[in-house]
Write a structure and sequence with these properties.
- The protein is built from 19 helices and 8 strands.
- By secondary structure, it is an alpha+beta fold.
- Strand 5 and strand 6 form a beta hairpin.
- The two termini are 37 Å apart.
Length: 493
């Protein structure tokens, strides 16, 4: 059923304290992220009851309403329209920046702030990574099958152009996030991919276009923001428009050529080598650990630290071997949810939540199941992690045998990752290994949750609640109808 986004937005606004309490609005793939001046004014229970809301998460100054993919984009747009009305716009604009910054200073740790800023740099790139990754996969199929040879070069150009220039977009977003001029960040990051760097020698080594990749672009743009801010405070205003951008590009560009590209290139190579070694040498164990810990990382927001690593691997090798392993955590979550659905057959509320959230879970969007099912029940969250660990170990074991499973883009997982799969042994075997990992995660997550995840106490509590509800309904009907014998007494608790 399609959610009415305008009604959902209108229902959410008063439950988060009204327009005066909202200091910022943003969204990711599944969540409406709100900055609230006073989070205590939000009614979390009422929010959870709003049709279309799949969960609520509070994370260091960010109040997050889980809505699911697609829906969140529409609801955010309608929510922003509500805030932009004349009655609220002036107040929002006057108080927003100050309150948001004050709350972030009071509640955010430097580590989590750093992760959020990294995410702000890379998350906007995900749609292009997905689109270009799928096109690259389609083109690979056409080339291998020998179909449409005249179209393949055009598809290759369309799919590869973004990845060839991704450093420029990273530099633009980095400068924007850290308070610099975005176009200057893009300008210094473009040095990393400019073909002319092949004529430059640093530390006795001739540079190569693209050396350092996204890490080099990130470092260059961050340095550019520092240089630019330094210049703004010292260059006379009359000369600022000429000297500040010139000095920013010159100083940062030279530092990039004679230091950052070399250092970032070494770091990028180390990341690729470490990831390949980890799976080739300790694949099953590494998959067990990574698959088992990924759900807690998502819950805490720490998975954002992996985004630059995935992007580096894609830029360097064409695919990331870590994402398919981490995607097994979602498979364990799905298996656990199915077991809860079977065990708590009398709990209509939980079963309804699972039915609505399961399609998203199968496509790799795990937050609705995490915050709507497994975390509130407790143990199913741990047994879901066990399912993820089993699936990760399965994929890791085949990596030890030399069968790499990678993804050409980040963002999707679950069944949505199939169009983005890539490997070193052909698409058929790669897809088979990944599917085997998903099935293993489903099976172990289901079995562990069915056996250990739903305790008798939880089952008894649910049964008692349902009995009370049924008895209350019978009491109400008997009282209204005035049937013989009077109202049916409720069971004492």
């Amino acid at each position: 059923m399609r959610i009415d986004s305008s009604s959902t937005a209108a229902a959410i606004l008063p439950l988060v304290g009204g327009p005066a309490n909202v200091t910022s609005v943003a969204h990711c793939m599944t969540r409406l992220r709100l900055g609230l001046a006073d989070p205590s004014r939000a009614d979390e229970e009422a929010l959870r009851a709003v049709p279309g809301v799949l969960g609520v998460v509070v994370d260091d100054g960010s109040y997050q309403v889980v809505l699911g993919p697609g829906v969140v984009t529409r609801v955010t747009a309608d929510f922003e329209q509500l805030l932009a009305r004349p009655s609220t716009a002036d107040e929002l604009g006057a108080r927003g920046a100050e309150l948001r910054e004050e709350r972030r200073r009071g509640n955010a740790t430097p580590f989590k702030t750093g992760l959020r800023r990294l995410a702000a740099v890379f998350v906007p790139l995900i749609p292009a990574l997905i689109g270009c990754g799928i096109l690259a996969g389609v083109n690979g199929l056409l080339v291998n099958a020998g179909w449409l040879p005249g179209l393949s070069p055009a598809l290759a150009a369309v799919a590869s152009a973004f990845m060839a220039l991704i450093a420029v977009f990273v530099g633009h977003n980095t400068a924007k996030e850290f308070g610099g001029t975005p176009i200057l960040g893009g300008a210094v990051a473009a040095i990393v991919v400019y073909p002319g760097v092949a004529k430059v020698t640093a530390f006795g080594v001739t540079l190569a276009p693209g050396q350092g990749g996204v890490l080099g672009a990130l470092a260059a743009a961050f340095l550019a923001t520092r240089v630019e801010k330094w210049c703004r405070g010292r260059v006379p205003e009359a000369l600022d428009v000429l000297l500040t951008p010139t000095l920013t590009v010159l100083v940062t560009g030279l530092c990039t050529l004679y230091g950052l590209m070399y250092a970032a290139g070494a770091m990028s190579s180390a990341i690729g080598t470490a990831a390949n070694w980890l799976l080739a040498t300790t694949g099953a164990f590494a998959g067990l650990v990574l698959g088992g810990l990924f759900l807690p990382l998502v819950m805490l927001g720490l998975h954002q630290a992996l985004i630059p690593i995935h992007t580096t691997l894609i830029d360097q090798q064409g695919y990331t071997v870590l994402l398919p392993v981490l995607a097994m955590a979602g498979a364990g979550q799905v298996g656990a949810a199915l077991a809860v659905y079977v065990r708590l057959r009398h709990d209509a509320s939980i079963r309804t939540t699972i039915r609505s959230a399961l399609p998203a879970g199968l496509l790799g969007v795990g937050e609705p199941l995490i915050y709507g099912v497994s975390l509130p029940l407790g143990r199913p969250f741990l047994t879901a992690c066990a399912g993820g660990a089993a699936g990760g170990a399965f994929v890791g074991y085949f990596a030890m045998l030399g069968d790499k499973v990678g993804a050409t883009a980040i963002g999707p997982s679950g069944w949505a990752l199939f169009p983005l799969l890539a490997g070193n042994r052909g698409l058929g075997l790669t897809a088979a290994v990944y599917a085997g990992g998903l099935l293993t995660g489903y099976a172990v997550g289901f079995a562990a949750t069915y056996a250990f995840g739903v305790t008798d106490r939880v089952t008894d509590r649910v049964t008692a609640r349902v009995t009370d509800d049924v008895t209350a309904g019978a009491t109400s009907r008997g009282s209204v109808s005035g049937g013989p014998g009077g109202p049916t007494p409720r069971r004492s608790s």
